Amino acid sequence: QVKMSRPVQARRLEGIDKNIWVEFVKLAATYSKVNLGQGFPDFPAPDFLQEAFTRALGGNHMLHQYTRAFGHPPLVKVLAQFFEKLLGRDLDPMTNVMVTVGAYQALFCCFQALVDEGDEVIIIEPFFDCYEPMVKMAGGTPVFVPLRPNPPKDGKLMSSADWQLDPAELASKFSERTKAIVLNSPNNPLGKVFSRGELGLIAELCVKHDVLCISDEVYEWLVYNGKQHIRIASLQGMWDRTVIIGSAGKTFSATGWKVGWAVGPDRLLQHLRTVHQNSVYHCATIAQEAVAQGFQRELMLYGKPDSYFVQLPKELQQKRDWLVQSLDAVGMKPIVPEGTYFLVADISQFKSDVPDVPNSDEPYDYRFAKWMVKNKGLAAIPLSAFYSEAHKNNYTNFIRFCFAKEEATLKAANDILQKWKQEKTSS
């Protein structure tokens, strides 16, 4: 056994080694009949995308080699054309777009390139769980501001729109130490789609305090009930200070391809390119080629009924509504999401079902999620995993489900919930 007197790991890894996914993925693999925990579709990517991949595989042999490090030329070109349409401004594919190994690496590049020791980064809670460790690894200090629920008075189900920022509380988090704010709209885990008014408030504070915005928009096409996804970079004064992050995995239901991108002004992206070239350097060429062809198809069909970006949210909205009804029937109170493929449900009515664990400081939502997967075979994720230490104890009555699943998977989940409901009524 080698004994070293000094710690082996870098100081920046202290306190960020625990990861919810390791534990819950293992639990789901061991016990679950139906896994609505992890956020990926179990249905196939669209035929046109799979065909593009097959064509690329058997076509030009150079697609098996390196392409341009900052993005395969056909892909950055079509992404620039697409975002020109969405943002209403001219983009240079070579300087305003960078391709990354999934949106995850785009986020990592942002924090490494833009955040210095001692910089503060505002994170809106609940948040996608990698933001906090990535800020800390860059030497920054995360500053948290929660969305606060305002339940409707009429007994109706809550919507993700009922979770809102307190404008005064948000403004109080900005200071001369603030370097950036992380915005995630549509928001994972809540499914909240930020309104123009809410985005305007954030934009005003960014401009006033000269703060950057890291805008995670991976669910940009997954919005429901005619809601509109508004891009904060399109608001006044925001293009020059925003990096938009996107994902082919979420856009085309192909999460394993790991193709993401960052779109923004060259003054910001040039620094992301430095991190990219000194970390992963390059992303899989064939996957980029296939995604480029997928976007070319969608550019031609933009706004038309045949567009995948029109069809997918219609399909997912139906699935969302099924799951909402199933959960509501068993006594979990779902918070109806306006976007994403996640849904958060209130489990406070189940406290008597879940045995207390003596001497455990584990929050109720963790205990409930573990009990549910072991006893009911249904996997979900505790919501407090998406909160900072300071705030997580206020949000332990909720769990998160993913509804981007085959009809058969959702039917199996419904069967578990129906059986559970019968057991509850008979006892």
UniProtKB/TrEMBL annotation:
Q: Which GO terms describe its molecular function?
A: cysteine-S-conjugate beta-lyase activity; kynurenine-oxoglutarate transaminase activity; pyridoxal phosphate binding
Q: Which InterPro entries match?
A: Aminotransferase_I/II_large, Kynurenine-oxoglutarate_AT, PyrdxlP-dep_Trfase, PyrdxlP-dep_Trfase_major, PyrdxlP-dep_Trfase_small
Any one cellular component term from GO for this entry?
Answer: mitochondrion
Q: Which domain of life is it from?
A: Eukaryota
Catalysed reaction equations from the record: an S-substituted L-cysteine + H2O = a thiol + pyruvate + NH4(+); L-kynurenine + 2-oxoglutarate = kynurenate + L-glutamate + H2O
Q: Name one Pfam family in it.
A: Aminotran_1_2
Listed cofactors? pyridoxal 5'-phosphate
Question: Which keywords belong to this entry?
Answer: Aminotransferase, Lyase, Pyridoxal phosphate, Transferase
Assembly and oligomerization = Homodimer.
Name assigned to this protein? KAT1 transaminase
Q: Which organism is it from?
A: Menura novaehollandiae (superb lyrebird)
